[in-house]
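Could someone model glycine with this protein?
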Amino acid sequence: MTKKISRRHFFNRSFGLGAGMLLFKNMAFSKSTENGKIPMIITSHTNQTGQKAIEMGWEILKKGGSVVDAVEKAANVIEVDPKDRSVGYGGFPNEEGIVQLDASIMDGKTYNAGAVACLENIKTPSSVARIVMERTDHVMLVGQDALRFARKWGFKEENLMTEETRKAWLRAREKMSDRDDWGPPDHLKDLKKKESGTEGAGAFEVPAHGTTNVLAVDANGDIAGITTTSGLGNKIPGRVGDSPIIGAGLYVDNEVGAAGATGRGEDVIKSCATYYIIMRMKQGRTPQQACEDALKMIVEKYKKVNPDFFPGEKFVAINKKGNFGCSNMPGRRKARLSMINADGFKIYTGTSLFS
Ligand code: GLY
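Reply:
Sure, complex below.
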């Protein structure tokens, strides 16, 4: 199966961390439901930062705290990680070298939602999205006006470009085309190839997309979720992905569950994918089945115009009972997610479509 869109390779993370288990005391608050347990929290991130993030959220949930606080504080851990090139601080910039962040949050209990798009200079866009949700009658603020809004609420402006990301962006810019004026002169082109060989595989890889989802259900069965990202690497300035679009990058329904998307946002927007996942769960599908249904739905649409095209999405979902699932388009490895409930932390392996 071949992908037809150049430079939009599926960025399959290979964090290579094994599953760990944490045991928790005083779990009397935890309720067993049909197959799952609540409270519980998941993230699509399966690296160490993903684990730290949901441990932070779990601390809140296990004390009976707010599910909205739990997802926000968990997402913030990933957003401020300078090494993560797909979310928040250190995120990969657009084609002008400017980091523009998108994020959304949804509170299943109130069906309220907030989002920011193309937000610059603020490390924690999901917290700004939360203020849009809770302190305005709007759902989304964008660009310089979102930044002005964040400043008014006391958010500190910071340079989001780390040295590592700046170098990676410059090198990616040089390697993007041999027909523009970036990179060494023509007679040094061979040297350029040799030099890039010494930098280590992937050192300057452009993350086509990354993103993270954090979804949780508390002991009362209330559900919330966040999707946050720096978006497509080298995107056209002003491009908004699926992450801040309610029903695309994120949807939460307190009666059903929550779903989040990562991967190439354009396809997720055009298919209203997370809303579809919630509707499938409402019809009785498990979170795992509903994620697979959404991928099939997207492929069915594309098949009509290009049978060889498989977009690069991954979906994660939870339901009100504390069940969870994830699936991705065909890629290097099966979809995974990190989760914590009263049984502890684990990395769950879902499915890859057609495997
Ligand atoms: N899914 C993230 C993006 O496309 O921006």
